Every structure is written in C-alpha cells, then in structure tokens.
Amino acid sequence: MRKAKRQAGMRHLDKNFRAAHTRIEMQLSGNNGVLEASPGSLVDLRRGDEAVLSEIDLPVEDARRLMELGFLPGARVVAGQSAPGGDPRVFQVDGSEIAVRRETARRLKIFRKENLPRPA
Amino acid sequence: MSECHDCAGCGPAAMAPFPSGTAAKAVAVIGPPNSGKTTLFNRLTGLRQKVANFPGVTVEQHTGIAELAGGQVVELIDLPGVYSLSPHSEDEQVAYDVLTGRRDDTPKPEAVLLVLDSTNLGRHLMLAAPILALGLPSLIILNMADDLRSRGGTVDTKALSRELGAPVALVSARQGEGIEQVRDFLAGTMDLPTPRSLPVLHDVPKCREWAGRIGSQADYRPPIAPKWTRRLDRVILHPVAGPLIFALVVIAVFQSIFSYVTPLMDGVKWLFEVSGNWIATSLPPSLFRSLLVEGVWKGVGSVIVFLPQVLLLFLFIGILEDSGYLARAALIADRTMARFGLQGKSFIPLLSAYACAVPAILSTRTIENKRDRIATILIAPFMTCAARFPVYTLIIAAFLPNRRLLGFLSVRTVAMIGLYALGFVMAVLTARILKSSILKSGRTPFLLEMPAYRWPTVQSLGLRLFDRSKVFLRRAGTVILLVTVLLWTAAHVPYTHGHPPAIRDSLAGTLGRTIEPVIKPLGFDWKIGIGLITSFAARETIIATLGAIYGMDHPDSTSMDLQSALRQDLTPGAAVALLIFFAFAMQCVSTVAVVRRETGGWKWPIAQFAYMSALAYGGAFLAQHLWRYV
C-alpha cells in the first residue's frame, strides 16, 4: 500500500520529508527479502511490481481459462490497481488487464527474484 | 472431444470459397468477449435484428439481416463471445454446435466473420486457428483500427492474410471504417488468398506461441498502453475516491429512477387516464366499453407506466457498460457480493431490481458465470420493486399513525425502510443457501477483464433501449392484457337479467370464497383473496381490485375510503401478514415469464415461484400468529 502511494503521486512528499522517504525505502527492502525467501505468487506483488509466471497451481479447466486470458507460464505480469482492500487485483498481462481474486492469485506462482529470466 | 478442436488447425484447412458473386445465406459472427463483435453486428444489421435465447440453454441468440449492395440479404448469427472453441462452457458449446451445424434450431452457417481486437492481436489471434480449421470461408476482422492507430500500433493485413490463408480486414466498427470490406466478403466479391495448411496445436501455450509467430510475420506492433484508461483507473480505483465515485454513481442511478422520472411516469399515467375517459365518453355504455376501459386500458396502462423508469434504467446500464465503468464497479463491489456467495457483476442487476425485476433479470446477461447468473436471477424478485411500493403505502397508511419517532422519522417511514430491508435480507439469505448448495460454483476462479474506457455511441445505446423496451412492452401487450381481460370477465359473469352480478356472486367472488379456507390462517377474507389472485398478474393490481370490490370508482392508494374499508376487514396482525406476503411472494407474471425465457426452461421459474410462495405463506402465517404476543 505504501509503495502504491509513493507511485501515485507522493513524489513531492518524498522531496519534502526525508524521514518519510527513508522509511518507505526500508520497508521496500524488507519486502524484497520476503519475496526472495518464499516461493512467491501474484499475491506478493504490489502495485507496479513485475514478475514472470512460473506455474499455475489450479485444476486443468481453471488453468486453461487463465491461460486463454494470457496467464501463461513465462508470461510477464504487472500488478495494477485493486478494489479497496486489495482484493480483487487487476493484473496487466499479454496486453490486457484482468482482475483476479486473491484466492486465485495465490495459485499463480511466480519466479523468485534471483531466478528471474533477464532479457538479454 | 477429439484433440484437434482444442485450439487447433487440423491439417490443411480446405476452405470452400462461395461461388463468386453470390451472397451466403447464413453467416456466423464470432469473436472473443470485448472484441467489439456486437458493435459490428449492430453496424451491419441496424434495427433488422431479433434477440431470443437458444432453446434449452441460457445463451442469448441474436440474429439479424444485413442488406448488401444490389438488394442481396444475408442472415447474420451473432454467437456468444468465446476465447476458444473447446466446448467447456455453455457459450463455447453453443458456438461450436452452431458452427458445425449441430443445432436444429439454427441454420449451419456458410461463412464466418471472426472479429478480433486489433489492439490485442497476440492473444486474440489464438481463436483464428480453430475457426479456420472448420473449413468455412472466413473473414478475419481486425476491429478497433482507430484505437490501434491512435496508440501507435501497426499490422500488415496483406502479410497476415497470406500467413493465415484467409482474407483479413482492418476495420473500426464504431467509426464505420472499413465496413465495406465486410460487405464485399458477404457478397462474395472479395478476392480470397490461397488457403494454407495450418499446424496442429494441442494446448494453449502452443496456440499462443503460434499466434505470436503469425503476428510477428505480419509485422504486428502492439499499441502502447491506453494512457487515458490508466489515468482514469488511478482515480476510479483509488482506495478512497473509488468507493466514493461508486457510491455517487449508485445514488445518481437510484435518484433518477425513483424521483427524477416521476413527472414522466405521471405523464404516462395522465395520458392513460385522459384517453380512458375519452374512450368512456365517446362510446355508448356497454359491456364492450367496460371491458375496454376497466379491463384493457387500466390493466395495460398500469404496466406501461413503468416504461420511462425501465428505459432510464437501461440507458444508465448501457452507458456504464459501454464506457467500461461497469467492469470497475463490479471490481469494487466484488468483495461485498462475495460475502453473500455472489460476485461483483451481480450488483447492478440487484440494484435494478429495486425498480423492476424484469429489466434486472434481463441485465444479468452481463454475468458470464452461469451459476452466479441463475442465483442472481433467483434472488432479484426479493428486492422491493416499484410495484410493491403503492401496496406498501396503502397498507401502512391504513394501519400506522403518522407519528414521529425520535423526533424526525415518522413511524410510516420506519415501516417502509423495514420492508425494504426485509426483502434485501431474504435475498441475501437465499443467495447464501443457493450458493452453498445447488448453485455452488466450486472453485471456478472469478476473472474480470477490464476493457479500455470508451465513449458510448448513440447507436449502440439506442439499439439497446429499443431492444429492451420491445421485450418489456411485449409482456404488457400479451401477458398483462390477457390477465386483465380474464379478471374483468371473471368479475362480470354470470350475467343475469342484463346486469353483471354483485362481486360476491361473480366468478371472481366465487374463486375468492373457494380459496378463503386456505388464506384464513393468514387472516385474509375472500375479498383479499380476489386481490391476491389478481395481484399475481402484477402486484399493484390488488389496489385496483380492492377498489372495485369495495365499490369505489377511482381507486387510489391514498384514498381514505379504501383505507377505512381495509381497517374494517383486516386485523393489524393480518395487515402485517399481508405486507410480509407481498414482500416475499413472486406475484408477477412478467417476472415468471422473463425467468423462463432467460433460464431457457420452466425448471427455475417453477422452483422459484414455489419457494417464494412457500416463504410468503409461512412468513404471513407466522406474522399473523406472533402478532398477538406483540
């Protein structure tokens, strides 16, 4: 949430209040730690975060639906806006924006940060 | 299911071109949701279209006639929006069956118009493989050319056509750009490329890979992200501003369909009164005049009064849906609706049901998940519709003093709010029961595509209003007309010595007295019984009926005479029972008919009617008996 705010337009606040700025940075680095430690899913992404899908942990039929909408293993996903409270959240994938409930996002696994395939 | 239908072109797609210069007779229009398929269909057919349901399923069937240059006509069949042809959902099954000529009720199409969103071609091209594999002459329509251009995307249609072995047209259905290519194809005057054999593909990842490759061979450059959509979403989905805007939209819709539209509704009512009086004075007193004025005119008028409200409601829903806000509203409402076992898209239909259940049930078409859609249809009639309002007003005014409670709220207002809440609570409870039993969605994920914001077009809104008012008026013109004529007849037979019988001795009176033992435990007598019978045509009919029974010329819900007559015939307990009966019962022929139509059979409307009637009877019985202890 805090990172989301920063992107949405608190840039001037960052300039004016050094303390607030530092705190956000610290929080961010903390998050990265969590991201690396656990096998991540789309739930772990905050607004603006980007990840690569690794697998879809859902029954075949449901996985097919998601894949038809672009959630294919290897696809780049960017977390977007969400409903108040963070659920469901919109994800930008394969040229569209698809809202997914938390219970489903949890099943969409992403590569851990260090394994992220880097484009050449 | 053979594997080649999954997402595959099965070997060489031997396409049979139409004989040159002849138009096809029936052509299917297919494409993924949000590809602008309906806009193109509207553009080609205009008002020459009809909407029905495919028999036996909840899938809507649009057919229309496209007129080509030279007077040729083509029948277009608009198929449901699908992402693939693998028959996993009802929509896909219907699309697949129609395209392969397996449905007896629809002619096998001789050609296909495949509509794809050119701004999202990589993903949408996946549908091209299974469609081309059908071997029917197909035109690939890349829609939304205007968006593609303005956002800096490009595609080489000639190269794409070569790669796919099928003609390709870049069009903008909204602007009318490139439509003549579609007409040329339909007329059979378009040059077709050499058909190509397409690879056999088995799963979605391979399909997507194929689509990507075809796209890059056609020099497809995807457009940049829609800037305005992102900007607007930052406000509309803002954690604070978002819900506020949502609330404002809801209040604006509510306020419009309840207050601002009142003068219009009064106008319609006045027109019917004046014209009724005019007919009454210009015809000699006769049975026919009585039937025409008391039966037909009053009955049909009482329903047409709701037309302005229904039209306004659909105008709002149309604007919300076409602009793209509806998807955002569904996103915001989803958490709350999920608590009742429903989903975000159920919100607007349930809101509409406060005006009238009929348009509400028609508007559930935006819910793709069939189980969620049926659950929404089943609970919509619990919402306090406008037809209940005059009945509530009459009974509350007759039995409750206009006293103030807590200084500012009148007792009557509190009772009215209580009745609205009662309907809502019962709807929510029913939803929970349904969704945890027969309509359990399992773990099917809720997925909602967020379309880019667009200006709604006048043509599309106009066609929608035209279509919905046709459905609504057809009800008034058939069902309601029939019931009012039947009621009038029942109140006027047997005819003795040239005079109609006293209401007690008429067929209607006899009916009322026959059902009296059944409704006695609720505290109702035969007069209320007749009212209840007639109210099954439309709830507010009970007021006109009771008015007629108590011998008043111009029944009016605020009439003091009707109120005092009711006070004599009903105990306070029975009055509460009557209110509860009206809150729960599905007394509306139009709703039953529209549920049958929308669910594709009698199963759901019968179950719904039985459930709501049982609830109404049980609730009224309890109220009547518990009232003594209050």
Report on this structure:
- The longest helix of chain A has 20 residues, at 18-37.
- Chain A is α+β, with helices and mostly antiparallel strands.
- Chain A has two domains: 1-37, no CATH class; 40-113, SH3 type barrels.
- Chain A has a five-stranded antiparallel sheet.
- In chain A, a hairpin with a 6-residue loop joins strand 2 and strand 3 (89-93).
- Chain A contains five helices and five strands; from the N terminus they run H-H-H-E-H-E-E-E-H-E.
- Chain A is globular.
- Chain B is an alpha/beta fold and 630 residues long.
- Chain B folds into three domains: 4-8 and 16-224, Rossmann fold, CATH 3.40.50.300; 241-260 and 306-389 and 410-456, no CATH class; 493-629, no CATH class.
- Chain B has 27 helices and ten strands.
- A seven-stranded mixed sheet of chain B has the order 2-3-4-1-5-6-7, sandwiched between helices.
- In chain B, a hairpin with a 5-residue loop joins strand 3 and strand 4.
- The longest helix of chain B is centred in the last third of the chain and has 35 residues, at 458-492.
- Chain B is elongated and about 85 Å long.
- Chain B starts with 25 loop residues before the first strand and ends with a helix.
- Residues 1-14 and 552-559 of chain B have low confidence and may be disordered.
- Chain A binds chain B through residues 1, 8, 58-59, 61-62, 64-70, 72-74, 80-85, 87-88, 90, 92, 94-101, 103-104, and chain B through 83-84, 86, 88, 119-120, 122-123, 126, 204-205, 208, 222, 225, 233-234, 237-239, 242-243, 327, 331-332, 334-335, 338, 344, 443-450.
